[in-house]
Amino acid sequence: MKLQIIHYPHPTLRHVSKPVKRVDAELHDMVAQMFELMYEHEGVGLAANQVDLPYRLFVANPSGDPKNKDTEHVFINPVLKGGKDQAEGEEGCLSIPGVLGQVVRKEKITIEAYNLQGEQFVGELDGLFARVVQHEVDHLDGKLFIDRLPAAQAAELREDLEEFEIDFNSKRDCGELPDDNTIAERLAELEKLRT
């Protein structure tokens, strides 16, 4: 399965991901492709639903450096446990390229998840890494960073978002993208395989 990043307003970006119950060679391959796509598009995190998959998993490398394998992380079935303090920072999204906004998030968080070996781990994160993880967990819950923007800032981005909507609809009109029902059926089939 060749993965690619999907763009707003693709319905899978609003799909609430299902926990993964089976890790197999194909899932390992998907994760490897997700890292490749993330680096290719100069990102620091990528969630499964950004590549049209319904699974509760994401990859991250806060350094953004493909040579720095030590900072590569895979989070399967992540759960955020509380957090402290708040910080505002600029965020973008590989599924809404070129659009940026100031988002308030927790400065420090605790996350529980599983790695690709099926081992559970707990991470205490702060700063950029904490922001990346919160952004990606939002994706898995069907939320985008634009949903967290104050009304005035969201209004400023409206024109940019409309361009993505026009592009999406024209691709659909040309038959390049399936309709919502076809997408929902495909996601349901994929869920049966691993959730």
Structure report:
The structure is a single chain. With 195 residues, the chain is α+β, with helices and mostly antiparallel strands. The protein is 35% helix and 24% strand. It contains four helices and five strands, in the order αβββββααα. The protein has helices at 25-40, 127-140, 151-173, 180-194, and strands at residues 45-47, 57-60, 73-91, 101-114, 120-126. A five-stranded antiparallel sheet has the order 1-2-3-4-5, sandwiched between helices. It is globular. The two termini are 18 Å apart.
CATH superfamily: Peptide deformylase
| Secondary-structure element series | HEEEEEHHH
Q: Give the termini distance in whole angstroms.
A: 18 Å
Range of helix content: 25-40%
| Overall morphology | globular
Question: Order of strands side by side in the largest beta sheet?
Answer: 1-2-3-4-5
Main pleated sheet: 5 strands, antiparallel
Number of strands: 5
What is the assembly state of the chains in this entry?
single chain
- Helix/strand/pairing class, anyone? alpha+beta
* Highest-level CATH class: Alpha Beta
Number of domains: 1
Which architecture does the CATH hierarchy give at level 2? Alpha-Beta Complex
Instruction: Enter the CATH topology name.
Output: Peptide Deformylase
Average predicted local confidence, pLDDT: 96
Segments where pLDDT lies below 50 for 5+ residues?
none
What is the gyration radius calculated from CA atoms? 16 Å
Percentage of residues in DSSP E strands: 15-25%
